[in-house]
Amino acid sequence: MLASCYTKLINVFLNKETLEVFTVDSDCMIRIWDLHTGSCIKTLPIETHFKQRYDGKEDPVFKTKSKICSCSMTDDFRSLIVAFESGAVQVHNPYSG
Fold it and tell me: What rounded mean pLDDT belongs to the chain?
């Protein structure tokens, strides 16, 4: 199962070298699947971070847990770029969150 009936599947990425499939759902979860067995190898939450503004206050765009609206993976599978409904954009390591 790539995503539950409660979340929207945002994107799927295939690593042809390792034969792993990466799925990202709207509720901020990265799942890594083994293409040979079909089993989920790892599940990682995508944490939304609080960001300090130039004046030292927390930026409200990062304060609420926002759903993912788009994402993209770099060609080397080392970085996952995530865009949230709130307008925030973050870069994550898909193997460690």
Answer: 80
The answer to whether residues 65 and 48 touch, using CB atoms and an 8 Å cutoff, is yes
Tell whether the torsion through CA atoms of 22, 24, 30 and 36 is positive or negative.
Answer: negative
Higher pLDDT, 1 or 71: 71
- Reply yes or no on whether the pLDDT at 15 is more than 90: yes
Among 29-38, 52-61, 86-95, top mean pLDDT goes to 29-38
